[in-house]
Amino acid sequence: MVQLILAEKPTAAKKIAESILEKYTTKKKYSTNYYESPSGIIVASAAGHLFTLKDKIRKKYPNFDLEWQPSFKKNKFTKNFYQLLSYLGKFSKEVTIATDLDIEGEVIGYNIYRFLCKKAKVSRMEFSTLTKDELQKAFLKRKKGYNRGLAESGLTRHYLDYFYGVNITKALTASIKTASNRYYLLSSGRVQGPTLAILANREKEIEEFVPIPFWQLNFLTSKSEEKEFPEPLTFNYSISKIWEKENAEKIFRKCKDKNAVVSEIKTKKMRLNPPVPFNLTNLQLEAYKVFGFSPSRTQAIAQRLYLQGLISYPRTSSQKIPSSIDYKKIIEKLSKIFEVGKKLLKKELKPMEGKKSDPAHPSIHPTGELPKKLKGEEEKIYSLIVHRFFSVFGEPAERLSVKIFANIEKYKFYCSGSKTIKKNWLEFYPFAKIEEIELPDLKEEEVLIVDKLNLLEKETKPPNRYTQASLVRELEKRNLGTKSTRAMIIKTLYDRNYCEGQKIKVTNLGRSVVKTLDKYAPEFLSEDLTAKFEKEMEAVEQDKKKREKVLDEAKEILEKTFGKFKEKEIGKSLLSSVEETKEKQNVVGECKCGGQLKFIKMYNGSRFIGCSNYPKCKNSFPLPRNCGIEKTGKICKDCSTPILKIIRKGRRPFNMCLDPKCKSKENWREKKSKKEK
């Protein structure tokens, strides 16, 4: 009989074994490593979800008759992990769930326990970092049983996501087949539908926006009667928008060819408080602002840093740092590679904290473990997290704000500036973008020589398009999705060609999906309904509501909606935008003959780029096998062919142009030639 510790991923299993087991040996069964100590404790790993929901019997939507099945039937990668845990489960006296302490982690651990280790007692390790001290403490203080509330809430989420996501996706895809007898995957879901609707509504606001003209006045000055300024200054008229042209022109005429007189100088000292610690959403927003990383990319990088033991668990809502994590010890360790940290050790450590908390995890923070070697993007996110951690212990920065008012006749203009007097926390956080505008020393009644007076005609702007980062923030504000799922929902919208661009623009297909669902099944876009189920899942976690009752409510709503789902009409409504999107997806760029270069797929699965003017033009280019390919919209400066992004599993993506003989590939050809020799 053995005691089995169950980790979520192989990297975490190795960390747990190194921290908890004494004199362990690494063993292998079903091509999968596990770790065993002489005392009979074994650490083994899952590979994420080993079980997934499936239809008991394949039938048309809506289908609510589901069961949990091993996921390797679809994802073969998980088969060896399933076989190993199935084997170890037969001999285990106790199973300790040591998966990530969140909804998904609890479902992963609970499913493995109930399906593969039925005879064992169960306990739960709770930790936020993969450091030796915390893992040892978590093992010694493991709790009897599993986190039932979290597991029940997680199971509810999986059922709801299947009820909505899979059934709606089946219905939309079937509607295209009914209308055209062709297959094209269209998806929507409990959160995906409302998210797309938010984007489509913003698109509509932008299109319907009618600009209103207004006028602004300012003057430029580079000197007074007494001195020249280091830089020219711009003074803006005190009314920021003048809506009547006649009024603006009147003020312009009265002020033209006249100098200004300083009428008032206001100075104000301000305290700029340190930032609060990162939770996942804050980290995603900051990484987008500083590095341009998408939320899903930031989340994936943070997860890798966590598995290396360098940071705490990233999927947290908390903006708090409990004293139990030993700030001083962490800063002492980090100061070995981050010199600036030493300055914090000379003061009392008291963090600035935000309002948000998380019952399972503190805010994202470095563990103090020093990295051996990080990839470029990992190093950037790690440095961001470390410096943010330092900065929350800093003193408020001090800033001096200066506002100079100057009159031309009776008309008041102003110029604003500010500068940092004491950097304090800013010294620890180089990523802060603080504008420094230092104004010259002026005094009241000083005459400013007006170099130029400007009358500017402008117009009001439509609302901004969302970025991926601002959309994550908007979804959090509206209580749509979870901290863990929002980034992936946005990625799915891109993958389905519902939206495009850094400033998110909804494609014709995305708009068509929203328009069609709004007409035939508005419940699938209902933000209120989605938020309602989020609250009900929280109630399930707190044991205030039963899973079965929540699922029965969802079934009732969906059965009514699908009862009036008009497949043929919906298919016809979507068909033209589907065909247009498919055609647009296939086109890579322009051929030198004037035709279009397109993806061509052969019967044997191989792919190449060919010209639409074939057989007149036989221009074609090979494509690498077994990889993902994305268009970049860029053209090679050497050969003038389109540049594609090549994505290979487990390797860094790279860009390449189409022409194999291009000058840009000389190094590649040299390396290939050396290998062949």
Short description:
By secondary structure, the protein is an alpha+beta fold. It has a 7-stranded mixed β-sheet with strand order 2-3-4-1-7-8-9. It has a 6-stranded antiparallel barrel with strand order 10-11-14-13-12-15. The chain has a 4-stranded antiparallel β-sheet with strand order 19-20-21-22.
List the helices and strands and how they pair.
Layout: E1 2-7, H1 10-20, E2 25-29, E3 32-36, E4 41-45, E5 51-55, E6 66-70, H2 79-89, E7 92-98, H3 103-116, E8 121-124, H4 132-140, E9 143-144, H5 148-180, H6 192-208, E10 213-224, E11 228-237, H7 245-255, E12 260-272, H8 280-291, H9 295-307, H10 327-334, H11 376-391, E13 397-408, E14 411-422, E15 447-449, E16 452-459, H12 468-477, H13 486-495, E17 499-500, E18 505-506, H14 508-520, H15 527-541, H16 547-563, H17 567-586, E19 587-590, E20 596-601, E21 607-611, E22 620-622, E23 628-635, E24 642-647, E25 654-657, H18 666-676
Parallel strand pairs: 1-4, 1-7, 7-8
Antiparallel strand pairs: 2-3, 3-4, 5-6, 8-9, 10-11, 10-15, 10-16, 11-14, 12-13, 12-15, 13-14, 17-18, 19-20, 20-21, 21-22, 23-24, 24-25
Please give a structural write-up.
This protein is of the alpha+beta class and 677 residues long. The protein folds into five domains: 2-146, Rossmann fold; 156-207 and 470-578, Orthogonal Bundle (Topoisomerase I, domain 2); 213-274 and 400-459, Topoisomerase I, domain 3, CATH 2.70.20.10; 280-391, Topoisomerase I, domain 4; 589-676, no CATH class. 37% of the residues lie in helices and 23% in strands. The protein contains 18 helices and 25 strands.
